[in-house]
Design brief:
Layout (H helix, E strand, L loop, with lengths): L14 E7 L11 E2 L2 E7 L5 E6 L21 E2 L3 E4 L5 E5 L12 E6 L5 E5 L14 E4 L5 E5 L17 E7 L4 E6 L5 E6 L5 E5 L28 E6 L5 E5 L4 E5 L5 E6 L12 E4 L7 E6 L4 E6 L4 E6 L12 E6 L5 E5 L5 E12 L13
């Protein structure tokens, strides 16, 4: 077991990536569009940035342009899926219910796989007599053409169901095997693997590689023995370049690492006093060849942690609660582009995407860097 301990301030020879918030990215949206809870971000092979948000999370006062007649010019929900170029221009937009598939009641997470396909999950638990739970994944082309659905709404039989998911959070497709790894999720307590073309079930496992179960562990309590099962949500499943699967066990404040077959390797803990929504929310890797650094969003503490990937030690942390550039309200998802820049999205009332420009490596002199405001 590897515990994440923040390195002491005097260890100034320790190096870590340095960032500044980009005040000009992205550009304003057209058509008086605004974002709701922004619940996923991904970067494709062209360094285009994709986000997904929840139009239904907007308050009535934010959608006055959509009433009949319009109450005001502002505003209207943007389409759920948006693609931006490196300059922050909006390139494509689509999403929502359509023929032949079940669009999530509460979409969650977006992944662009190595073939350029777009994967979307959902985390609605359903409302009796109104809607079913989001127990499926959807696959689209980049133009929004439907390709594949795995699972059906409201059909989950639990963490050992081989056909349905249960509010899946995030996905990753291994280009070596064309296997789809799913953090499953808000209802189930597992990682599950499918063929990315056919949707055929391959395998699944829970925390430490155990067979998962759905026993209610109760709330996380700091100081308790490490839970032998994932708590909800199992929030991310991301491959490193050296073929290891990193899984966010958010409410347990930890990251677990596995081989592709589900064999457990090690774990690390982040901000272990964090209760509520938990600290290990999403992760991304630095873009150097060794992927030496790991970036972890912390939705409860409104920060991003920079970890040494080999030791899983926290080197430094940036951000603080707030709504100004460089601050966070609900930092949820994270991705990096080929230049090493970081992109974050914010859920709840954060409702935005931010870019942090990579400025090279610098000595670590502070545990908490605060807001990464530009120097000039």
């Amino acid at each position: 077991m590897v515990f994440l301990a923040v390195l002491s301030v005097h260890a100034a020879t320790i190096m870590a990536p340095k960032f500044e918030v980009d005040l000009r990215w992205p550009k304003p949206l057209p058509n008086h569009w605004i974002l709701g809870a922004t619940i996923g971000v991904a970067v494709d092979a062209q360094d285009h940035v994709w986000i997904i948000h929840r139009p239904g999370s907007l308050e009535p006062g934010e959608t006055h342009a959509t009433t009949n007649p319009p109450l005001a010019q502002c505003c209207a929900p943007a389409p759920p899926v948006l693609e931006f170029d490196q300059a922050g221009n909006l390139l494509r937009h689509w999403g929502g219910p359509g023929e032949g598939f079940d669009w999530p009641v509460s979409n969650h997470g977006i992944t662009i796989d190595y073939k350029g396909n777009v994967w979307i999950g959902g985390n609605s638990r359903g409302v009796p007599n109104v809607s079913l739970s989001d127990d499926m994944l959807l696959k689209f082309t980049q133009d929004g053409k439907f390709l594949l659905q795995i699972g059906k709404p409201g059909q989950s039989k639990g963490s050992n169901d081989l056909e349905n998911l249960r509010q899946p959070a995030k996905t990753f497709v291994d280009p070596k095997t064309n296997e789809l790894y799913v953090a499953d999720g808000y209802g189930n307590h597992r990682v599950v693997v499918f063929d990315a073309d056919t949707g055929k079930y391959k395998r699944h496992w829970g925390a430490y590689g155990h067979k998962p179960d759905d026993i209610n562990l109760g709330p996380y309590k700091p100081g308790d023995p490490a839970a032998q099962q994932f708590r909800n949500p199992v929030h991310c499943a991301q491959f490193s370049g050296d073929g290891l699967l990193y899984v966010c066990d958010r409410a347990n404040d930890r990251i677990q690492i596995f081989k592709p077959d589900g064999a457990f390797l090690k774990e690390g803990f982040v901000e272990t006093s964090t209760m509520g929504s938990g600290s290990a929310t999403d992760l991304a890797f630095s873009r150097d060849a060794q992927q030496k650094y790991l970036y972890v969003t912390d939705v409860e503490n409104d920060t991003v942690h920079i970890l040494d990937r080999a030791s899983l030690e926290v080197l430094t942390t940036f951000g603080q609660g707030g709504r100004q550039p460089g601050e966070f309200y609900g930092p949820h998802s994270i991705a990096t582009d080929s230049k090493g820049n970081i992109y974050t999205t914010e859920t709840y009332r954060g409702q935005r995407v931010q870019r942090f420009i990579y400025k090279g490596l610098a000595p670590v002199t502070k545990k908490d860097q605060g807001v990464l405001w530009p120097k000039h």
